[in-house]
Inverse folding.
């Protein structure tokens, strides 16, 4: 069965600090990978996704993620965070070509201090 | 509509009562999903509808939970004889199609509190 691990439960950074949120998945086949963000009081929004091609994916608001197949990882990065990046971030996976649901990690809460 | 609409946004119910949660997906989206979001637990898959196919109910936690989708559009999640552990935010999402690379559009959720 597929599973997703997000090792950081809560990350606290100051503005302008660099960010890297870890995501590892467990699945033997090829996958599609996603990062979702939930800003306070808002619904989940797609931040970026990988399904083929360049393993370095760029998303909205300066975020990027790198798919490293050998490490089963899809870490999220941003070179310089802003206070407005305060949110909860969820990594998700589904099997390529599947008709099924996304499997989500438990989320990482990011707090950015102004 | 422009987005996924869920109602009610908040629901407080007494233990043992039945509740119905509604999801109106984006028009034309054939796939519809229900998830449950509990504090510190991330998103737990409940059930998935794809077109006219039989739903994937593999995530429903007990037989007190059921869902239907009428006419391939609106879906209702029903929880019978609610328990305090059912308290959570219930999220609905829809997708234009399943398969590679299609992410979901989520609704704002229904916050259920069982007292």
């Amino acid at each position: 069965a597929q599973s997703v691990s997000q090792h950081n439960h809560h990350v606290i950074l100051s503005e302008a600090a660099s960010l890297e949120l870890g995501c590892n998945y467990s699945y033997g086949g090829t996958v599609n990978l996603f990062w979702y963000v939930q800003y306070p009081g808002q619904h989940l929004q797609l931040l970026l996704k990988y399904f083929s091609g360049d393993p370095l994916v760029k998303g909205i608001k300066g975020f990027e993620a790198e798919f490293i197949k050998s490490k089963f990882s899809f870490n999220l990065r941003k070179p310089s965070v802003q206070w407005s990046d305060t949110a909860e971030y969820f990594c998700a996976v589904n099997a390529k070509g599947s008709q099924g649901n996304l499997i989500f990690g438990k989320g990482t809460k990011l707090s950015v201090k102004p | 509509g422009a987005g996924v609409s869920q109602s009610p946004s908040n629901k407080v119910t007494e233990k043992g009562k039945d509740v119905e949660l509604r999801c109106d997906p984006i028009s034309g989206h054939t796939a519809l999903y229900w998830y449950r979001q509990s504090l510190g637990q991330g998103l737990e898959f409940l059930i998935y509808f794809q077109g006219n196919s039989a739903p994937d109910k593999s995530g429903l936690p007990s037989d007190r939970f059921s869902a239907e989708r009428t006419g391939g559009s609106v879906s209702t999640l029903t929880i019978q004889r609610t328990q305090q552990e059912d308290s959570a935010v219930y999220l609905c999402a829809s997708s234009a199609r399943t398969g590679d690379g299609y992410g979901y559009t989520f609704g704002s959720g229904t916050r259920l509190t069982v007292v």
Notes: The two ends of chain B are 33 Å apart (CA to CA).
